C-alpha cells in the first residue's frame, strides 16, 4: 500500500494525464477510507467550481467557494455523518480548484496537513497534464470560446503567482470572448517582469497581433534581454507584419523584488497606480509610441519606487476608459472605489472584485472592449 503525499506524487507521475482525478480518488479511498471524493476546477471566469469525477454533479457551493477564496483547508463537520474536508488545489499561488472528500477518520491537524500536501501534488500534476489532455480544459469552460479567446487563454502564464516577497494576480474579461488585451509575467531570481498589452482592433486579428507581440517579447526575455530590447523586438515584429496599420499598446515593468525599484517602458494605454494604506496614487510616466506603430520605434526606461506593503495595479483601457452608455469613464472614480474595497483582499481576490465592479458599471450593456487588470503586492 502507498502512504503519504510523496507516494501520491509517484502514482500521479505514472498515471495517464487524463486519469489523475481517478488515481487520486482510489488512493484516498485505500489510504484514508475516503468517500464522496470530488475534484472541482474553477471555470475560466472564476464564477463556478465544476466537478471533474462526476460531470453531472452539482457545482461547488458556498463552502467550496470559501475554501477556494481563502486558500485554506476547511473541515465541514456533519453532525450525523463523516467529516467532510475541502483542500485548495494551488500551484505557486495559481488557484486551480478544490479537492473535496469525506472520511471516517478524525479530522486531526496531522490528517489535514497530509491531505493538504496530497492536494498540492494533485494540483501540480493537473497543471502539467494540461499540455497533454483536453479533459481539464473542457471542464473549465462553461460555454464555447471564440477562436480569439482560445488563442489568448493558451498564451496566458497563469492567473496567480506567489513568491517569498510578492503576491501577483491577473484577470481577463470577458473570459469567453476576449480579443486583444493580455498580460504576461515571468520571475527569474530577484527580477519580476510584468507586461500588460492592448492589441489594436478586435476579433481574431487583434488576438493574432497580441500573440506576435507576446512571443517576440518572450523571445527577447528568454535570450537575456531587458524590457527595452523586449519592447523593441516586439515593435519590429509587429511592424514587419502590419506596416504600421496595427499596433499594440503596452506597459512593460521590471520589478526588483529585493529593493522595490521598478523600471518601466510605457508604450501605450495601460495605466498603473499604487495603493498604500487606503491611499491610491497614479504612476505618471512619459508615454512612448505603441509597439509596431513605426518601423524604428526605440524606447527608454523610466523608474519609480515601491515601498514595503505597496500594491501596484495595472489596468488596460478596457478597464480605466470604459464608458458604457455615455457614462463617465470607469477610471474617473468608480475604479478607485472598487480598488479601495480590495484593501484587505489578496491580489487573487482583488482582481475579481474589480472585474465584478466593472460588470456592474456596465449595467447590462455589452462591453465595447475587453479588459485586463493585474495586481502585485510587494511584501519585501
Automatic annotation (TrEMBL):
Domain of life per record: Bacteria
Q: What is its EC number?
A: 3.1.3.16
An example Pfam family from this entry, by short name, is: SpoIIE
Q: Which UniProt keywords apply?
A: Hydrolase
One MF term from GO for this chain? protein serine/threonine phosphatase activity
* Record Gene3D superfamilies: PPM-type phosphatase domain
Domain (PPM-type phosphatase): residue spans on this chain:
168-378
| PANTHER family, per database record | STAGE II SPORULATION PROTEIN E (PTHR43156:SF2), STAGE II SPORULATION PROTEIN E-RELATED (PTHR43156)
User: Could you identify this protein by its name?
Assistant: PP2C family protein-serine/threonine phosphatase
Amino acid at each position: 500500500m502507498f502512504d503519504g503525499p510523496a507516494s501520491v506524487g509517484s502514482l500521479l507521475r505514472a498515471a495517464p494525464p487524463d486519469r489523475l482525478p481517478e488515481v487520486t480518488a482510489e488512493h484516498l479511498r485505500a489510504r484514508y477510507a475516503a468517500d464522496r471524493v470530488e475534484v472541482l476546477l474553477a471555470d475560466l471566469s472564476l464564477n463556478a467550481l465544476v466537478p471533474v469525477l462526476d460531470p453531472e454533479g452539482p457545482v461547488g457551493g458556498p463552502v467550496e467557494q470559501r475554501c477556494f477564496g481563502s486558500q485554506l483547508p476547511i473541515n465541514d463537520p456533519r453532525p450525523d455523518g463523516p467529516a467532510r474536508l475541502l483542500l485548495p488545489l494551488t500551484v505557486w499561488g495559481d488557484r486551480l480548484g478544490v479537492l473535496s472528500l469525506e472520511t471516517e477518520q478524525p479530522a486531526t491537524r496531522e490528517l489535514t496537513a497530509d491531505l493538504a500536501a496530497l492536494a498540492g501534488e494533485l494540483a501540480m500534476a493537473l497543471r502539467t497534464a494540461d499540455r497533454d489532455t483536453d479533459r481539464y480544459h473542457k471542464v473549465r469552460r462553461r460555454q464555447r470560446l471564440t477562436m480569439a479567446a482560445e488563442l489568448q487563454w493558451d498564451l496566458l502564464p497563469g492567473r496567480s503567482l506567489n513568491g517569498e516577497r510578492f503576491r501577483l494576480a491577473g484577470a481577463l474579461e470577458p473570459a469567453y470572448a476576449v480579443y486583444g488585451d493580455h498580460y504576461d509575467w515571468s520571475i527569474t531570481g530577484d527580477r519580476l517582469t510584468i507586461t500588460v498589452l492592448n492589441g489594436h482592433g478586435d476579433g481574431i486579428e487583434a488576438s493574432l497581433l497580441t500573440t506576435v507581440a507576446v512571443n517576440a517579447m518572450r523571445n527577447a526575455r528568454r535570450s537575456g534581454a531587458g524590457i527595452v530590447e523586449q519592447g523593441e523586438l516586439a515593435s519590429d515584429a509587429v511592424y514587419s507584419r502590419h506596416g504600421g496599420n496595427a499596433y499594440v499598446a503596452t506597459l512593460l515593468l521590471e520589478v526588483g523584488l529585493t529593493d522595490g525599484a521598478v523600471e518601466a517602458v510605457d508604450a501605450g494605454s495601460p495605466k498603473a497606480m499604487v495603493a498604500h494604506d487606503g491611499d491610491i496614487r497614479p504612476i505618471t510616466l512619459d508615454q512612448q509610441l505603441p509597439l509596431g506603430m513605426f518601423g524604428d520605434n526605440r524606447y527608454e526606461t523610466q523608474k519609480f519606487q515601491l515601498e514595503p506593503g505597496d500594491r501596484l495595479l495595472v489596468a488596460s483601457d478596457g478597464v480605466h476608459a470604459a464608458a458604457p452608455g455615455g457614462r463617465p469613464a470607469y477610471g474617473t472614480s468608480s475604479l478607485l472605489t472598487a480598488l479601495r474595497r480590495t484593501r484587505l483582499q489578496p491580489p487573487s481576490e482583488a482582481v475579481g472584485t474589480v472585474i465584478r465592479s466593472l460588470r456592474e458599471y456596465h449595467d447590462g450593456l455589452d462591453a465595447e472592449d475587453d479588459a485586463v487588470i493585474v495586481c502585485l503586492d510587494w511584501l519585501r
